[in-house]
Design brief:
Elements (H helix, E strand, L loop, with lengths): L1 E3 L1 H8 L5 H6 L7 E17 L2 E19 L2 E7 L4 H18 L16 E5 L9 H15 L5 E19 L4 E19 L2 E7 L4 E2 L7 H19 L2 E2 L3 E7 L1 H13 L4 H4 L29 E3 L22 E5 L2 E2 L6 H7 L7 E2 L8 E2 L4 E3 L6 H6 L3 E13 L5 E13 L2 E7 L1 E6 H6 L1 E4 L6 E10 L4 E9 L2 E10 L2
Parallel strand pairs: 5-7, 10-20, 11-18
Antiparallel strand pairs: 1-3, 2-3, 2-6, 3-4, 6-7, 7-8, 7-9, 11-25, 12-13, 12-17, 13-14, 15-16, 18-19, 19-20, 19-21, 21-25, 22-25, 23-24
Helix pairs in contact: 4-5
The structure holds zinc ion.
Zinc ion binds next to loops.
């Protein structure tokens, strides 16, 4: 990894491997060989309390060589892009696979590396805007975030990632995927004596262009953040009792991620992750049978929403990504497992075999995991609640290793009394157990309440891999949930 000034980036970043030539140059007797090249440039522009804090671009470029020998995959990565270094990496991967094949968990064939040819390009309207324009937006947003004397800290951030991956294999795969990822990050922290409250806008990472940082749009969001943070300082504490819970789609992001996504990763169910990320309360026998949630719960693996953070054409095994129902009408149908896990478990899966970069082997990951919209308007949801609470934006989370019992906290909440939103309360939390919680899903919001969210911070694997995930959801109503206050 190199830290460079923008002038020197173009020179190095412009270098493109000839993967075909690199593959031809490899001199080993493997049953299958694949090369996956990843080039990524990540730019951070951060303003904290009107001072520039970060203004840099990080470049990362390397290649993973993957081989199949005696039914065992071996991996070796290098950031030396010479043909000789790639051939040496292939020899190392071969030795590793040959030695490991004496202890294989499962004898794989190249059927788990399907032939794929094609291209994927993420959508964007504006590839670039002048740097001074972006900085002006960030500084102005920071001023708006600090719109009250009660705001003690404000941060404005733009994270812009350009990523290109190219894949080639000995069974005819040849595809490339180009992504532009943008992540806004705005937060205001308000303080009054020993009361501290925070509001943020950080989980709206998308595949898009610089249009996301259009000034008017950013400033209006920051105005709300500042107002909410100050409002929370004088709000009552969230009550502790059972009541109906309405979750904004920005909290549904975390709810789906933790209590569905991780629980349904097939490698976790098989025990691969028990040392680090954990296991799952879901068993292989549950697929096709388990009533995960109420009849109106429909969860999809969906790589087809172009702006969603983890949309792509192919996963890192070369499997073409398609939309699939994971849970339909409340019944668990399919796991989040790539081709290797599908063979090992005999469970239907999806194209989610993914690595975080060139120097990691792919494993089963969430990508876009969404709750499909229903038919209730936001007003219909609120007016149906006699006594309840409407929570927005995750603040804290805790869930056990089996992804069963959880408690989550939000930044901002409003009480609902006799079908009306009444007053704002601070420090809202709720706790439940995964399947009873999803079975208490009573109303699902319509398309007007549906929003797309994403985060680059899903961690799993040894050594750790942080990957991008997307979650889109409507506003939802859950019946009779344990609510409690407290920071
Ligand atoms: Zn995660």
């Amino acid at each position: 990894m190199l830290i460079l000034t923008s002038a020197s980036i173009k020179k190095i970043y412009g270098k493109i491997m000839n993967l075909k030539k690199a593959l031809e140059n490899i001199n080993i007797q493997a049953d299958w060989i694949g090369l996956r090249e990843v080039k990524e440039s990540t730019t951070y522009r951060i303003i904290r309390d009107l001072n520039p804090e970060s203004n840099n671009t990080v470049l990362d470029h390397g290649i993973m060589v993957e081989v199949l020998v005696n039914g065992q995959f071996g991996y070796f990565a290098t950031n030396n892009m010479s043909y000789d270094a790639i051939n040496q990496a292939a020899k190392n991967a071969y030795t590793q696979a040959l030695n490991a094949s004496k202890y294989s968990l499962y004898p794989f064939t190249k059927s788990v590396r399907p032939k794929s040819v094609g291209k994927y390009q993420s959508p964007y309207q504006k590839k670039n805007i002048p740097l001074d324009e972006l900085m002006e937006t960030l500084i102005n947003s920071n001023k708006v975030l600090r719109g009250s004397k009660k705001i003690v800290s404000a941060i404005s951030m733009a994270r812009i990632v350009d990523m290109e991956m190219n894949f080639i294999s000995t069974n005819g795969s040849e595809f490339s995927q180009n992504f532009m990822y943008v992540g806004p990050g705005f937060r205001a922290i308000a303080q009054d004596g020993n009361i501290v409250q925070s509001r943020s806008y950080t989980d709206q990472c998308m595949q898009a262009g610089m249009e996301v940082f259009e000034q008017e749009r950013v400033l209006s969001k920051c105005e709300t953040i500042c107002k909410d943070a100050v409002e929370l300082l004088s709000a009552d504490e969230c009550p502790t009792e059972k009541m109906d819970l309405v979750l904004h789609s920005d909290q549904m992001l975390l709810q789906i991620h933790e209590s569905i996504g991780h629980a349904l990763e097939v490698d976790r169910i098989l025990g691969d992750e028990r040392n680090y990320a954990g296991w799952s309360f879901v068993n292989l026998e549950d697929f096709g049978k388990l009533k995960y949630g109420s009849d109106i719960m429909n969860i999809t693996f969906d790589p087809t929403i172009p702006e969603e953070f983890a949309s792509y054409g192919f996963d890192d095994s070369g499997l073409k990504a398609t939309k699939e129902f994971i849970i339909k009408d409340g019944v668990l149908l399919r796991g989040l497992g790539g081709l290797e896990s599908q063979e090992r478990s005999n469970i239907d899966g999806v194209a989610n075999f993914r690595a975080c970069s060139w120097n990691r082997a792919p494993i089963d990951r969430m990508a876009n995991l969404n709750l499909e919209p229903g038919d209730s308007s936001f007003d219909e949801i609120i007016s149906s609640v006699e006594k309840g609470i409407y929570m927005q934006t995750n603040r804290s989370w805790s869930i056990d290793d089996f992804r069963n019992k959880f408690q989550f906290g939000c930044e901002y909440a409003q009480l609902i009394e006799n079908g009306q939103i009444t007053k704002t309360v601070k420090n809202p939390n709720y706790r439940a157990v995964s399947t009873p919680f999803w079975n208490s899903l009573k109303m699902v919001g319509n398309q007007d309440t549906f929003d797309v969210y994403g985060t680059p911070y899903c961690g799993k694997g040894e050594p750790n891999q942080g990957v991008r995930v997307g979650h889109a959801s409507p506003t939802c109503l859950f019946n009779n949930i344990e609510i409690f206050g407290g920071a």
